[in-house]
Each structure stands twice: as C-alpha cells, then as structure tokens.
Amino acid sequence: MASEKKIPEDEETETQNTDLSTVEKKWISSYCLSKGWQRIHDNRREDYKLKWCETKRRDTYYSFREGEQLLYQIPNNKLLTTKIGLLNALREYTRVMNKISRSPTAAHIKVLKMEDFFPETYRLDLKEERESFITVFHDEEIWICKPTASNQGKGIFLIRTQEEVISLQAKMQSIADDPTYKKIPFKAPQARVIQRYIHNPLLLDGKKFDVRSYLLIACAMPYMVFFGHGYARLTLSLYDPKTKDLAGHLTNQFMQKKSPLYVLLKEETVWSMDRLNKHINEKFRRAKGLPKDWVLTTFTKRMQQIMLQCFLAVKAKLECKLGYFDLIGCDFLIDENFKVWLLEMNSNPALHTNCEVLKDVVPKVVHETLDLALETFHKSLRTEKMLPLLSQRNFVLLHSGEDELWPRSIRLRSPIRPLRLSCEPSYQAVNLLSSAAGSSPTKAADRSSKKLEPPRASQKPMGLLGPPGPIHPKSTLHFLNPSSTVKGQPQAPSQEYLQTQAPHSTLSEEPEVCPHPPSHMLTLLQPLPSNSSDFWFQGALEMEPPVMASNDLFLPLYPSRMLSLSFPSEPIPPLQYPQPF
User: Fold this and answer.
1) Region Disordered: start and end of each range (predicted)?
2) Share of the chain above pLDDT 90, in %
3) Secondary structure (DSSP) of 479-515
4) What residue segments make up the domains of the chain, in order of their start?
5) Backbone dihedral region of 463: left (phi > 0), alpha (psi from -120 to 50 degrees) or beta?
6) 132-151 in b/e burial notation, b at 16+ Cβ within 10 A?
7) How is domain 78-83+200-400 classified at the architecture level of CATH?
8) Average pLDDT over all residues of the chain
C-alpha cells in the first residue's frame, strides 16, 4: 500500500511554482476527499480516475484511457493558450467565415470582426510579418513584445522607438539565420509576437486594470463549453504610459508582488466583479451613457461572444476524447471608450488565494469545474441528455455539441482492451482484436470474408466483462511529479487521483448483486456479423446495429455509444460489479 502524505493546511512560499502547487493541492484535494476519494503516491500507476495535470507530459496522454478516466488539460490547447496559436486560429476563422458569409444562404451568420476585439498583432518569427510591422510602426507609439508560450509577464518588454525596432529586427533575423537553431529547432528561443499597446485603458481610481474570466471545456465528447466570471486585477501604482516599470503596465499578481507596497495594499489589487460593477455605475454610467449594471450585462455578454468565437475557431482542431476537460483563463481589457479587448488566453490559470476576493472566487471555480466535468462525463458515458445540469451554478453555457454529429469515431493507439475498473476484476473480457492487430491487411480481409460462427455454449462469453473480485473499500489518491516539461510552461506537479468506493463501517464483505450490469461497465467492442438474434443484440443504445461493409471485420469504434455482447445459449448468472463512481 502506498504511503499517505498529509497536505499542509495553508503553505505559501515565494517560489511561484511551489505556491501554485500547494494551493492547487489544497483545493483539488479538499474536493476529492469530500467525495470519499483518497490519494495515491505511486507515480507508475495508471489506474487513476482523476488527474489534475499542471504540466503536460506526453506519456500522460499516451496512457490515458478514454471513457474511463478524467484528465485536466486538453493536450493541444496551445491552439488557444499560446499567442501564436490564438492569432493563427482567429485569422483562419475570420478568413473562412468571411468566405462563407458571401454565400446568399449564409447571410444570417454573424461573426465578430477580429480587429474589433483583438489588438493588431504580428509574428516576429516570420520575415514577412516582421517587415509588415516595421512598415506600420511610428515613433511615440507603444508596442508590447511577448513570448508565445510564457505567462506571469515573463519575457515581456515594450517597444517605443525606431532604434528599438531595428535592434529587435536584427535579433530576430540572427536567430532565423543561426544554423544551430535550424538543425536543432527546439533549442531556439521562443517565438514572439508584437502587439499594439492599448494606449487609452479605462482606469479605476487612476490605476490600470484588466479582467480575468474563465473558459471551461467541461466535456470534449460532446463539447460542453461554459463561461465563468472571475475578478478584476489592478496595478499598485497610478498609470503612466511613459514609465518603463512593467509593474505599471502588467496587472498580474506575479508582477505586483515585486512592489514593496504589495504586503500593505494587496487587497486593493484584486476586485470582485460586483465591486467593479458598482464602481462603473457610480463613476461612469451617467458620464458615458452606459446602461445600469454595464459590467454584468453588456460587458459580460461581449466577453462571452469573444470567448465563443475563439472556441469555435479551434473546435475542429482540438483533440476531443471523452474524459478530457480544461479550464482556461481569459484576460480582457476595457479602454476609455468602453471597448472590450481580448489580451490573451492562458492554460492552467493561477489558483492562488493570497487575498480575500480570490479566497471567495477560486474555490467556487475549482469545485464547479470538477462538478461539471464529472456530471458531463457520466452523462456522456450513459448516453443521457446533458441538460439540465444539476451541478451548474455560476458557469454559463456557451456551446453544447449534444445535437451535433454523434457518435464520433476515435483514433485508437493500440488494440482494444477491456474496461479497467478501480477494483480489478478476477478476469477480463476477451479481446477480439488481439489476434488480428498484428496481422497483415490481406489476412485480415480474408478472415472478414469468412462467415463467423456464434460462440458455443461452452465458450466464455465474448465481449462481456467477467465478475470482479471482492471490492476493496480502501484506495489511494496520489500526486505525480513530472520529470519533463513542455517548453514555455513552468515546471509544476500534476495531481492524480484514484476514485473508489469510500470506506464505510457498515460495508459488507460481499458486494451487492445486480441482475443487469450498467452499460459503462462493459467492454467497448464492436458487433460481429451474425444471423442469429439469440446471440447478438445491441445492449446500450436500443437501436439497429450499423451496416457492416463486406470487407471490414470491425467498424470504427464510438466511445461509450456502441456496445455489442455475445452470450451462450444457456442463461448467465447475474454479475457482480463495483458501484459506479
């Protein structure tokens, strides 16, 4: 049995990664322990039910079991959460939608103009875009240069003069011409973008601010996407566009903590959305002719529209597997004309709670994120309707893919394997693809042309999960410390949880007996051709089996949507199975 490790009640250090890790452990662990789950420490185990992964690792996604596990962070969320990824996605989406909108049948489609919500941006890793930037740059303008995949304000600097532009151009060109980086691209510095600085931001009592909101992808099959309110972040110092101190331009807590005034004034660096709304009502409503509660109505709606368009721009490219979920931090700025700008999107948003507002906001966001991820996961497994969602409290639904093409095919990295449960069964389902997986396509085609006989009564039922061994009420819940990181992301520990039945004093030694196993406890196998309805039936969807091509032994798999069972002629005794989590 793995040793248990107690989580500190509240441990914060100066190191950002340690601070974030400790706080995330606190909120994630408190949630999981409240569900009766426990932590395990063996980082070689793959039989977790929930893994909160701050830093993405390739082997984490390789070993992920779709439809059985929950994993935080979609593997290619960089399409949204890197500067270049978001820029490319919005450009491509705008180009495609502009082309579609010219059609008379698509005149009703409304797409936000990219220039109306996203600051003018150029890629510095592309020569033609560097030259375009030099053409549009003028002295006395302010541009902000950012690495594509960094956060916390790291690597950011301002460009104000022609000399700085020339120096930047020479540096970027030297990197592009360096033969070492051409041979070993991953050793090259991060690619950068340069973005027009919003020179006229709206100020709160003379201080610059932005708003952190949340985009939650609670389920990837089907997509269930939500908007969540966050908080306003303010600088400690009064806004001065001429200052070279980045803490006066960047509002994040990492930058503000560098000020000696932070300890005394940290509560003023974060405002709740209600406080922001009240301030706008009192200071700007009449002067600017704004509607009442502009922050909670017009501004909120605009953020939702922008976030939805960003998601739609990458929707077809995201890796969607049942069990993936993601929480993305979205940063918005309001200018003095009350125009809303999207600054960037961030993966693994900060969950620290170093002030009172964050202590109220962050736990609610984390708990509802996990509640929605669990509920949508189970409903998708059981092919139930997603709406209404009992766990939905503060998040607002932006997009539901429930009515889209379903079921969807999935790409398998290995032959089908039976469903693995937290309590290991005494024997597993027969893997019908194991023998054919290593054969040539010709041999597989020859076998598919032969008539397949139904199994004899003496055979073990094919495709059926066998009765498990005794239920062990004790299990563990563990953290993993990744040894490798993705470039541009800070090193931080992942968190991995194994969910099993919670210990109970009245738990009997023998598990309960159920005459019919639930569909999500059965192996996901495809139907074999058979003319006898005594042997084959569709157990999950109550629908006609799909048409099978003459040269195909198996159809593409559809996760948790298509189940096929083979039974012998004699009755099968009732199965014993663990309670679903």
Assistant:
1) 434-515
2) 45
3) EE--S---TTS----EEEEE--PPP-TT--SSPPEES
4) 78-83+200-400, 120-196
5) left
6) ebeeebeeeeebbbbbbbbb
7) 2-Layer Sandwich (3.30)
8) 74
pLDDT mean over 424-447: 37
Strand (E) or helix (H) holding 270? strand 270-271
Residue 36 pLDDT: 87
pLDDT tens column, 65-86: 999 999 999 999 999 999 999 9
Q: Rounded to the nearest 10 degrees, what angle do helices 16-34 and 356-381 cross at?
A: 50
Beta-ladder partners of 422: none
Q: What is the pLDDT of residue 580?
A: 42
User: Would you list the DSSP string of 325-343?
Assistant: EEEEEEEEEEBTT--EEEE
Decide if domain 120-196 falls under CATH 3.30.1490.
yes
Q: Which phi-psi region, left, alpha or beta, contains residue 542 (left: φ > 0; alpha: ψ -120 to 50)?
A: left
β-partners of residue 219 are: 224
Up-side HSE of residue 256: CA atoms within 13 Å toward CB? 24
User: Which residue is it, tokens 């500067």?
Assistant: 83
* Overall residue count recorded for the chain in this entry: 581
* Distances 352 to 7, 20, 84, 262, 537 between C-alpha atoms, Å: 16, 6, 27, 15, 52
User: What are the φ/ψ torsions at residue 50 (nearest 5 degrees)?
Assistant: -140, 130
Pairing of β 494-498 and β 50-52: antiparallel
Mean pLDDT value across residues 146-175: 88
